[in-house]
Design goal:
This protein is mainly alpha-helical. Helices cover 72% and strands 0% of the residues. It has 34 helices and no strands. Helix 8 (160-172) packs parallel to helix 10.
Length: 649
């Protein structure tokens, strides 16, 4: 409505200008010997100051209404009517373009201001500041530099607001040192930094993990809560709580009182560390000093209690928070829903979802739906996950890559691979590019179902969509190829992986070694084991277990025993799996006495048998000793085990 009124005002102004020209025609006649076409635009009587002010008012109203096209039209009308553009009108126009996300239009308008729009050349930094701010909103830092240079060429001295914008621009682009040098330039120009200047630099240093340098800047800067809060947050992320308390003490000594942000940051840090007693102690301190907690404080406590497994206390804290009048935010609801999902109370989580927005004017966001979809999927309720997805799209909430990936996983679990691929195509169409996790989810599911050929097709599509495969992608495919007995393609994939500059990781080597062992190709597996050691990757228990199992399957019991001995030499602790595999093969070869030797050796190393171990020994004993002998053997072993346990205790 405001935009329409402003356009009507422009039309009235145009009519007003026409009538003024007609009534003054006698006073301002054309020069003799010249045609009207020879006159420059806007030639004639000088426009009244009232017209400029009226046009400025119209531009301001259009800018406030967000009508950028109307603003452009108004500026064009001023040019055609010869009304000079005032600085106020230009500032309003640049602000409108900035809010509309069109800094390029703001820049063009600025450069046209003097020559085309009749705007007086700026002598104060106000106009430049608004333009720089507009450019920084869209992170167009490259365009800021020439604007600043033109500003200096025009003899306009930057003020503290200009410098703050430049410091912000440098910090946004990780040029913190250049931002700190800007303080020296300010000193040379006699422009004292203000609270915003120091706070911006301190925050940037903390963001890059340079907390100690931030504290140095903090010590010489005027005390500001925002700067101290930035340092407290950085220290809490590193859980340097002793330093946090020193910073808070320094705040008080310099005349600042910790704010609710300060206390909530500390409470959240203790909650994340699982130290709930300290978190509640800080809450008590907060109340004693007269600082009222807010919903973020209680949300951090609820989350901490859920993470510690204190579900009853978490729900009690939530109910108390609501009863005392703190209205939960969307973040608070997300914490509650996540907590309920973590204890498999999906019905309760759905109840909370349905309650959002009914009383608190608080609506679910993409994280809310993502948590629910993932939880329903993990619980095996795939229909429930699809129902949440439908609710999300019906509510107009745009999915992000996490939600899309969760839904791809849901479709894969339901063996609906066509729908999963269609969803990936939709992601690309909706300008939400799938990432490696999305593709890996589909590839893993296809390989698990034996559809390795189709998985390879998805693999080749990844690069076309601008998503290079990672080592997880290759490992899933290698696992699928080896399970299908396709050794040639698997080894070719390893070569392709190296050709793309990817180093083979421990997981990749283990996948190849395990795959070769499953195909009873222990010689080739040993070669890969050697390459692994040469590359400086230490084999783990999985590697040795795979090799021991391979030798046992081939009946090479001595090689399996040798490999078990090599585990200690490779600084890899022997485990119950390795011993059980070896004892199983010894029993299969009717070598029960040798199996018992390894049982005693295992017990000597402090490794106690599990159900699988006992099953192996009982079956072997029955085959070799019969029923009575087996019972006597088990009684003897259990007696020895009990005696050993008593001695240790």
């Amino acid at each position: 409505m405001c935009s329409i009124k402003c356009r009507l005002l422009l039309r009235r102004l145009c009519c007003h200008r026409s009538s003024r020209f007609s009534t003054t025609a006698a006073k301002f006649s054309l020069p003799r010997g010249k045609n009207a076409e020879d006159l420059t635009p806007g030639a004639g009587p000088p426009p009244a100051p009232d017209a400029a002010r009226a046009h400025e008012a119209a531009v301001r109203r259009l800018a406030a209404a967000g009508d950028v096209d109307g603003v452009q039209l108004a500026l064009q009308e001023m040019r055609l009517r010869g009304v000079p553009c005032t600085e106020g009108a230009l500032v309003a126009a640049i602000g409108a373009f900035a809010r509309a996300g069109a800094p390029d239009r703001a820049l063009k308008t600025f450069y046209r201001a003097v020559h085309d729009l009749g705007c007086a050349r700026p002598t104060a930094p106000r106009l430049y500041n608004h333009l720089i701010d507009a450019l920084l909103r869209e992170n167009m830092v490259a365009a800021v530099v020439p604007v600043y240079e033109n500003m200096k060429k025009d003899g306009v001295q930057p003020n503290v607001f200009t410098y703050n914008l430049l410091v912000k621009a440098l910090c946004q682009n990780d040029r913190v040192e250049a931002a700190r040098k800007m303080l020296d330039e300010m000193a040379r120009k006699g422009c004292s930094p203000d609270d915003v200047t120091h706070a911006t630099i301190v925050s940037a240093l903390c963001k890059h993990g340079r907390v100690d340098e931030a504290r140095e800047v903090l010590a010489v800067a005027p005390p500001v809560c925002a700067s101290y809060n930035a340092v407290v947050l950085a220290l809490c992320r590193e859980f340097r709580m002793q330093d946090v308390f020193l910073i808070v003490e320094e705040m008080v000594q310099r005349g600042l009182q910790p704010t609710v942000i300060t206390y909530t940051t500390i409470v959240d840090a203790f909650c994340k560390a699982g130290e709930m007693r300290m978190a509640f102690a800080i809450l008590a301190r907060m109340v004693v000093t007269g600082c009222t907690p807010n919903v973020a404080t209680f949300t951090a406590l609820v989350k901490g209690l859920f993470d510690c497994g204190s579900v009853h206390d978490a729900l009690g804290m939530w109910k108390w928070m609501v009863a005392e009048g703190w209205a939960p935010s969307t973040v608070s609801y997300n914490v509650l829903i996540r907590g309920l999902c973590s204890i498999d109370d999906l019905k309760g989580a759905l109840s909370v979802l349905n309650g959002m927005g009914q009383h608190d004017d608080c609506f679910p966001n993409v994280r809310t739906y993502s948590t629910l979809i993932d939880s329903f999927s993990k619980a095996g309720d795939l229909d429930g996950a699809i129902s949440i997805w439908n609710d999300m799209t019906a509510a107009g909430c745009k999915p992000n890559v996490v939600v899309y990936t969760n839904m791809v996983d849901v479709f894969c679990k339901m063996l609906m691979f066509d729908q999963a691929e269609n969803l990936i195509d939709k992601m690309i169409f909706e300008n939400c590019p799938p990432n490696a996790v999305t593709f890996n989810t589909l590839i893993r599911s296809l390989c698990d179902c034996g559809r390795v050929g189709r998985a390879l097709g998805v693999f080749h599509e990844m690069r076309r969509h601008g998503c290079p495969p990672n080592d997880r992608t290759y490992n899933e495919l290698l696992h699928g190829l080896f399970r299908d007995g396709n050794r040639e393609d698997a080894l070719q994939l390893v070569i392709g992986m190296q050709n793309h500059g990817m180093e083979l990781s421990l997981v990749t080597y283990n996948t190849v070694v395990s795959g070769l062992c499953q195909m009873k190709m222990s010689r080739e597996a040993v070669l890969f084991l050697g390459r692994m050691i040469v590359q400086g990757i230490r084999p783990d228990a999985f590697t040795f277990n795979a090799m021991i199992h391979a030798y046992c399957k081939e009946g090479k019991i001595r090689m399996a025993a040798w490999m078990l001995g090599r585990m200690k030499a490779a600084n890899c602790p022997r485990n119950i799996v390795a011993y059980t595999i070896l004892m199983a093969e010894l029993c299969n070869q009717h070598r029960l006495e040798d199996a018992m030797v390894y049982l005693l050796k295992m017990l000597y190393e402090g490794i106690y048998p599990n159900i699988a171990t006992w099953n192996v020994l009982v079956r072997g004993a029955f085959r070799n000793l019969g029923c009575i002998g087996t019972i006597q053997l088990i009684q003897h072993i259990t007696t020895d085990l009990s005696a050993g346990t008593c001695e240790q205790s």
